């Protein structure tokens, strides 16, 4: 059978629902991993995607995160969140009243897993890191270590398995349009890149997409400064897959067309075709 698996940081699923539905109709993935939903679990547009033949499992709080998996092949064994996932202690609001209680770190909804027919996938939205030295940067590295531990068993199994999503790290200098513009910033630092290498070392390979227009494929372009038409981009959205998944890959590409026009996400979908 032929299976099409994709990942897309949608940057607000309800705000971009018409774009999502249009793309589902044209690209017709069997499984789609979404990130940055910006909606609570019960506010996900289940009925709208169901009309196109998709079951959905979502995990969100309505803040700047949230993940989901859409599938035409069924959804089973859903897991929300990583085992031993670190929490993040958010900065207090400027007008927040002082409290004598010790605040609890928040378990952000950044990972969801499901078995969809013959494949198992994780949809992940790795923390941004904000600034080198910031508490969110340390949280990002801790979160990637927890992801590595969470996927180890599935990676070693015989079933095609992949971790897809927005990793907020460019693995090499070639994965950003001009690495000199990122000096001293997140996404390109040695500890972040090493955390990705540690994840791959459990038995995952980068399913590298074809470049349909440029020599090197990017997946994210800032809304500012005409970054998309100038191709000032970054490759930070990946499909990290185990050997059975990789051996079944027949094609992979970044769908730049979905990034064009008004009202789009600042990320493009990454599509992988499998022959199973």
Automatic annotation (TrEMBL):
Q: What is this protein called?
A: Exodeoxyribonuclease III
- Family affiliation: Belongs to the DNA repair enzymes AP/ExoA family.
Question: What are the alphabetically sorted keywords of the record?
Answer: Hydrolase, Magnesium, Metal-binding
Q: Which PROSITE patterns match?
A: AP_NUCLEASE_F1_1, AP_NUCLEASE_F1_4
NCBIfam families hit by this protein: exoDNase_III, xth
Matching Pfam families:
Exo_endo_phos (PF03372)
Q: Name the Gene3D superfamilies for this protein.
A: Endonuclease/exonuclease/phosphatase
Q: Which residues form the Endonuclease/exonuclease/phosphatase domain?
A: 6-267
- Report the leader peptide range: none
| Entry-linked PANTHER family | EXODEOXYRIBONUCLEASE III
EC number(s) from the headed UniProt entry: 3.1.11.2
Q: What class of enzyme is it?
A: hydrolase
What organism, scientifically named, is this protein from?
Answer: Streptacidiphilus cavernicola
Q: Which GO terms describe its molecular function?
A: double-stranded DNA 3'-5' DNA exonuclease activity
Cofactor(s) this protein cannot do without: Mg(2+)
């Amino acid at each position: 059978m032929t299976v099409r698996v994709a990942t897309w940081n949608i940057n607000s699923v309800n705000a971009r629902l018409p774009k999502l539905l249009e793309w589902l109709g044209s690209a017709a993935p069997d499984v789609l991993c979404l990130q940055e939903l910006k909606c609570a679990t019960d506010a996900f547009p289940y009925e709208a995607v169901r009309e196109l033949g998709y079951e959905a499992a979502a995990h969100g709080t309505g803040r700047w995160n949230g993940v989901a998996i859409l599938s035409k092949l069924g959804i089973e064994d859903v897991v929300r969140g990583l085992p031993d996932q670190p929490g993040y202690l958010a900065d207090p609001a400027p007008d927040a009243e002082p409290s004598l209680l010790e605040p609890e770190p928040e378990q952000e909804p950044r990972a969801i897993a499901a078995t969809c027919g013959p494949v198992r996938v994780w949809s992940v939205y790795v923390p941004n890191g904000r600034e080198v030295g910031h508490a969110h940067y340390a949280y990002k590295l801790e979160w990637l270590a927890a992801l590595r531990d969470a996927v180890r068993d599935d990676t070693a199994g015989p079933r095609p398995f992949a971790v897809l999503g927005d990793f907020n790290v460019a693995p090499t200098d070639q994965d950003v349009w001009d690495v000199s513009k990122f000096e001293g910033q997140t996404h390109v630092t040695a500890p972040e890149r090493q955390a990705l290498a540690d994840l791959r070392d459990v038995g995952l390979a980068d399913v590298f997409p074809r470049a349909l227009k440029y020599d090197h494929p990017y997946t994210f372009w800032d809304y500012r400064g005409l970054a998309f038409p100038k191709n000032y981009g970054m490759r930070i959205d990946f499909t990290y897959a185990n050997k059975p998944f990789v051996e079944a890959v027949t094609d992979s590409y970044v769908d730049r067309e979905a990034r064009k026009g008004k009202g789009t996400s600042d990320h493009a979908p990454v599509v992988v075709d499998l022959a199973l």
